[in-house]
Structure formats: structure tokens, C-alpha cells
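FAQ: What does a ligand-bound record look like?

Like this one, built around glycine:
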Amino acid sequence: MVTWQTAIDDAIAKVKQNIGKHPGRLPHISEGQRYEWGENDDWIEGFYIGMMWLAYESSEGAFYKESAQSFLPSFKDRLDRHVALDHHDIGFLYSLSAVAQWQVTGSEAARAVALEAAERLYSRWRPNMGIIQAWGKEDDPENGGRMIIDCLMNLPLLFWAYEQTGEQKYYDIAYKHASASQRFLVRGDRSSYHTFYFDPKTGHALRGGTHQGYQDGSTWTRGQAWGIYGFALAYRYTKDAAFLDTSKRLAQYFIEHLPEDHVAYWDFDVAIEEDTPRDSSASAIAACGLLELLELLAEEDPDRALFEKALHSSMNSLVRHYATTDIPNAEGLLKHGSYHVRGDRAPDDYMIWGDYYYLEALVRMAKGIKGYW
Ligand code: GLY
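The answer part, i.e. the structure of the complex:
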């Protein structure tokens, strides 16, 4: 029988295998159940480094720490040369690399890199719209006025920078962006838009839409999961009860719309047929969000039992039916993630962020080790 611990052992063995097979390289979007291994130039490189930190904290193997640390110069160089950083995922990249390294080792060099990254993220604040711009340069004709729900997971880098420096500006834009996300991305029935457009000239709110979901008014499951965890973290840092409530409402919707095996399809509004892709990564992210909620909620909260049951059902299903514990040479930890189904990009494959959140959920449940948000 696969227990949480055997699932963790298997995950750590796969991290080790990947480091050994691809020294100095980082996983990119998968193709054909293999990651493409390359340079530090996409939005996802932090997840692999975060997995090394989780492996180190769970096993105390110095190998994982040394490997994670060896990538810090690459993250610093990326900032210096501004390599593929015209997007908001600076939070994903640097929370799991530089902040994680500072948290685990107290490295001043890592702290300095993380603060520089927070300042770069700050430069994406657009005061006339009251949002952090998701993608592209400021004058980008398509994306100049776009926010997306994923950005909630980039805010912890700003809250952390505020705690470190006392500079109010980091807290203020993170707080305002979370509030705008609540107002424009979350719908009255507790579902969510993936993206929302503003007019960058006037700052006026225009309309909700999607990029990776099924259609503009649908609910992309990974977006909903980013919202569950992201709003819970916004509450952790601000103690604004409205963020906790929003996280709870998104979690209720997510759980109520899960299929029988408790692992999400790629969009809650897509027709379910035999070959409809899943997104196991959405369920792994949601599991981490539920763990955060369970820590933050009052003991007597009426949703506690629902969230506990959903967490265990989803994680059991992931471990038993989606994990690669029976494929020793697999590069990924979770099968059946999807990146961009409509765009036909990795619609059914390993997702490195799915692997990260799956391991984060496992080590938090089994060992009380939290991620680095
Ligand atoms: N943040 C991009 C994605 O979830 O695919």
C-alpha cells in the first residue's frame, strides 16, 4: 500500500534522479511524458528548486540543499539581465528559490536576490487600474490591461518584502491587487474568471475572460485552485477576513464540482467525455490551499469537516491513481496534468508545478513542513 511516507520517498527519489540526469538544467513544459530540460528562462523554474528544498527539509540530505543553492547565481543573473521577466510570475520564480533558501539557511545573498525580485514585481503595478499587470510590457496592446487569477500566488513575495524591509509600498500593492482580484475575478456563484481586462488608458474595468480555460465565462479549474490558495495566503499576511471568506467560497465551489474520483478535469464547464483531459495539478494546488485554510480557520468553522474530507479524498486519489510511484524512471510525479488544452500545449502530461504542490501537500500533511509562500 502506498502511504504518504512512501509517496514522499518516491517523490524525493525522482527529484534526485532528475538532478543526476540533467545536471545544471531546469525542467520546461513537458512533451510526451518527458520534461524538456533547459535554461532559466520560463515562468516555472522555481518549482523544481522548491522541490529540492522540500526534499532537503524532509530528508536532511545535504545533496538537495547543495543542488538548490547551486541555482541561486542563475536566478540572480536572470534579474541582472532581465531574462524573460516581463510577467508577474516573478513571485513563483523567486519565492521558491531565493526566499526558500533564505528561509531554510538564512542566506543573506538569497535574501538580497529575493528583495531585488520583489522590486521587479513592484514595477508591474499599474496605479490607474489598481492591478499588477500579468503579462507583457506596459504598452503591450493585448495584455497591457490584463490581470489574471494566478497572480494571487505571486503576492507572497511582496508581503514577504514588506515584512523584511518595512516598506509599505509592497504591502499596499499586494493588498490592493488581492482586493481587485476579489472584486473582478470572483463571480457571485463562487466560480472565477481566469483573466480580467481593463482599459489601460482610462483604467476602466471592461470584462472577464479566459486564456487557458474552455471559454470566457467558464471556470478554469487551475485558476480556481490558484484562487483558493492565493486568497488564503492573502489572509495569512493581512488578517482581512474577507480574503479568508473568498478562499472558502472558491474551495466550496471547487469541491462541489469535482468528479467521482475527486481529481479535477481541466475546466468545470467542459463536457465530460471519455478523453476529456484532467488537470491533476489543479487538484494538487487546491489540496495545498485546503491545508492552508484548515490551519487558518476557527476550530468551530462549519466548513472544516468538508475541507478535511475533500483534502483526504483528493490526495488519496492523486497518490493511488495519478502518482508515478509505479514508474521508477518517470521524470514527473503526477500524471494527467494539463497546461493549455485549447492551445494543444501539453494537454495531458506532467506539470512541474503539479509535482511541486503535490510534494508540498504531502510533506505538510505527513511532517508539518510548509512551502515557502
Ligand atoms: N500560471 C500559469 C498557469 O497556471 O498555467
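Follow-up question: can I read anything off the structure? Yes, for example: DSSP finds 13 helices and seven strands in the chain.
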